[in-house]
Amino acid sequence: MKEITIRLNGETRRVAVAPNETLLDVLRGRLGIKTPKEGCGRGDCGACTVLLDGKAVRSCLILAVETDGQTVVTLEGVSKDGPTALQKAFVKRNVFQCGFCAPGVILSASALLTENPQPTEHEVREALAGNLCRCTGYEPIVKTVLEVAKQGARRKAARRGRS
Ligand code: FES
Ligand code: FES
């Protein structure tokens, strides 16, 4: 076992991990973080997506030992201060059905909007290509992300107008 230290959802956490344990196993099994889901367990579905140093990654493909010293954000961290605009929009539009893909989709979309606040439809689809959803057909997800991006731009423009 090796002790690693990560910054998890704003808190410093120390945890002993086995060399072959994935970040997903450690988050769910040792640290009580349940929003990253185990779907395929081999990098295909995106249900286990978390943000590692701000980038959306599949936590089932990453060994926990490799994350020593890094920052990990899960959906619990993203919504620490209440639901984000993106989450509110997904709920308002009733986008998800079973919800299994939702944490991964929200984190991938959040990473995209942070890096690229005004993505094109193609860019949204590309950013979410690794997040499989069996229920929605993707259209409402993509439309909601684009709408939230537009709202963000409108808010920014209004703030500029006031200053
Ligand atoms: S569980 Fe990680 S990509 Fe499917
Ligand atoms: S809402 Fe069921 S998998 Fe996406």
- The quaternary state of the protein chains shown equals single chain
Shape: globular
Bound molecules: FE2/S2 (inorganic) cluster
Biggest sheet architecture: 5 strands, mixed
Helix/sheet category: alpha+beta
User: Order of strands side by side in the largest beta sheet?
Assistant: 2-1-5-3-4
Query: What Rg is obtained from the alpha carbons, in whole angstroms?
Result: 16 Å
Order of helices and strands: EEHEEEHHHHH
Poorly predicted runs of 5 or more residues? none
Determine the number of helices (DSSP H or I, runs of at least 4 residues). 6
Strand content range: 15-25%
For the record, give the distance between the C-alpha atoms at the N and C termini, rounded to a whole number: 55 Å
* Helix share, percent: 25-40%
The gist of it:
With 163 residues, the protein is an alpha+beta fold. The protein is built from six helices and five strands.
Q: Which helices and strands appear, and what pairs or packs with what?
A:
Blueprint: E1 2-8, E2 11-17, H1 23-30, E3 49-52, E4 55-58, E5 71-73, H2 75-78, H3 85-92, H4 102-115, H5 121-127, H6 139-162
Parallel strand pairs: 1-5
Antiparallel strand pairs: 1-2, 3-4, 3-5
The site of one FE2/S2 (inorganic) cluster has 10 residues, from loops.
